[in-house]
Design goal:
- Helix 1 (5-17) runs antiparallel to helix 2, helix 1 runs antiparallel to helix 6 (122-150) and helix 3 (56-65) packs antiparallel against helix 4.
- The chain is an all-alpha fold.
- It has one domain.
- The chain is built from 6 helices and no strands.
- It is elongated, with a radius of gyration of 18 Å.
């Protein structure tokens, strides 16, 4: 995976922001939010692009693991993936687990920033910055695992 400019810019800003005071956070929050949103969007686009290159079997194996709106959808996804090779299913599972971990970290960072704004807490904002950096690292890991999953061959 090649480095994304939006992520690198947001990373640089967050590394500086980890030392800001409450007032600095308040005056810069729009800029930080904009940079963070651009980073998340760039990572999502990169992940979507990689997953678009997946084989049908890999897509079906991943879809089997994804949450479904109904039992009918779940049963359909399970049926479509029933004859898929174990190696492909294992690769899809690695990506899904990493994806879940990255999403949890992103939501945690967002929660920290919201709490920091509510409480006017620089320490919570700094923690949010650390969590955002961690979530971007995890999302990059998902992308690398998704790229590796494309190379898995059945048998």
């Amino acid at each position: 995976m090649q480095r994304l400019i939006e992520v690198e810019e947001a990373r640089a800003l967050m590394n500086v922001a980890k030392d800001w005071s409450v007032w600095r956070w308040l005056t810069e929050k729009k800029r930080v939010r904009h940079a963070a949103d651009r980073a998340v969007d760039a990572l999502s686009a990169a992940e979507t692009e990689v997953k678009a290159g997946w084989s049908d079997d890999l897509r079906k194996a991943y879809a089997e693991l994804a949450p479904h709106d109904s039992k009918r959808q779940h049963d359909r996804a399970k049926k479509e993936a029933e004859n898929i090779d174990f190696k492909i299913k294992a690769a899809a599972n690695r990506v899904k687990e990493a994806d879940d971990e990255a999403e949890t970290a992103r939501l945690d960072a967002e929660d920290r920033f919201e709490a920091a704004e509510r409480k006017l807490s620089a320490s919570l904002a700094r923690e949010g910055a650390r969590k955002a950096l961690e979530s971007w690292d995890l999302r990059e890991s998902v992308i690398r695992k998704a790229e590796a999953a494309k190379r898995v061959k059945p048998g």
